[in-house]
């Protein structure tokens, strides 16, 4: 899937 | 955002503030490993490369700036502040932390979620953070008396990632497709490295005696 890896944690 | 993650971030923030408080008010970094602080500055520098490209939330950006700013200023204090640097024990803080960076970088080049510069650097920061406390733990074992602030700093720093583990469990059961093996394994390894420190920390707290790690 083309979703860019978004790191939403610190 | 769940309560475990918020508690984890606040614990992490508290650890940084405790250390800054110690260094800034009593102008001393006795018992603090510069090596660990340098590793943490590198961890944040490589983990928050997306601070300008991916906006998650105001909270996320503010916290990233706080961690970046505090970790680099702590390194500056210990290395360059004319009073603080005199209390730095460079003869005891001898862990060769470069030997930690190289295997973490190699591992990140082979084991990652996606082979892009940002993703490999992010993965590198995870592996590096897992072992970043080692110079500090070695220093604590060498310096006989561990002052309260340094002990509290290490305790809070270890506890934050432990809280993150509960956050990952919570998210795994509440969000579909939330699977990040690399983050989870690195986080568990990191927390386990504190296990013996936690044991002696609680023992000293329970018996109300000074924290001392066995040599």
From TrEMBL, chain B:
Q: Which keywords does this chain's UniProt record carry? A: Endoplasmic reticulum, ER-Golgi transport, Membrane, Protein transport, Receptor, Signal, Transmembrane, Transmembrane helix, Transport
- Indicate the principal place this protein occupies in or around the cell: endoplasmic reticulum
Gene Ontology terms, cellular component aspect?
cis-Golgi network; endoplasmic reticulum; endoplasmic reticulum membrane
Superkingdom of this entry's organism?
A: Eukaryota
**Name of this protein:** ER lumen protein-retaining receptor
Presence of keyword Electron transport: no
Q: Which GO terms describe its biological process?
A: protein retention in ER lumen; protein transport; vesicle-mediated transport
* Keyword match Ligase: no
One of this protein's Pfam families, by short name?
ER_lumen_recept
- Organism of origin: Lactuca sativa (Garden lettuce)
Stored InterPro entries: ER_ret_rcpt (IPR000133)
Hey, which family's this protein in?
Belongs to the ERD2 family.
GO terms (molecular function) for this protein are: ER retention sequence binding
Q: How does it sit in the membrane?
A: Multi-pass membrane protein
Where does it reside? Endoplasmic reticulum membrane
Q: Which residues cross the membrane?
A: 55-78, 98-115, 121-140, 152-170, 182-202
Q: Where is the signal peptide?
A: 1-31
């Amino acid at each position: 899937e083309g979703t860019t890896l978004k790191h939403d944690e610190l | 955002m769940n309560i475990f993650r918020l508690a984890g971030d606040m614990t992490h923030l508290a650890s940084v503030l405790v250390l800054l408080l110690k260094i800034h008010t009593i102008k001393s970094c006795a018992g603090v490993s510069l090596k660990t602080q340098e590793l943490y500055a590198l961890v944040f520098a490589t983990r928050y490369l997306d601070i300008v490209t991916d906006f998650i939330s105001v909270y996320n950006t503010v916290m990233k700036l706080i961690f970046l700013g505090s970790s680099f200023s702590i390194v500056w204090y210990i290395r360059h502040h004319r009073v603080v640097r005199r209390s730095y024990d460079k003869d005891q803080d001898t862990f060769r932390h470069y030997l930690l960076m190289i295997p973490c970088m190699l591992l990140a080049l082979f084991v990652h979620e996606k082979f892009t510069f940002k993703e490999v650097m992010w993965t590198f920061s995870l592996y590096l953070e897992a072992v970043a406390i080692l110079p500090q733990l070695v220093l604590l074992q060498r310096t006989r008396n561990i002052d309260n602030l340094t002990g509290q700093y290490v305790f809070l720093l270890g506890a934050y990632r432990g809280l993150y583990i509960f956050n990952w469990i919570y998210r795994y059961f509440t969000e579909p497709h939330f699977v990040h093996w690399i983050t989870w394994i690195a986080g568990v390894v990191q927390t386990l490295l504190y296990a013996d420190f936690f044991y002696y920390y609680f023992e000293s707290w329970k018996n109300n005696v000074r924290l001392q790690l066995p040599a």
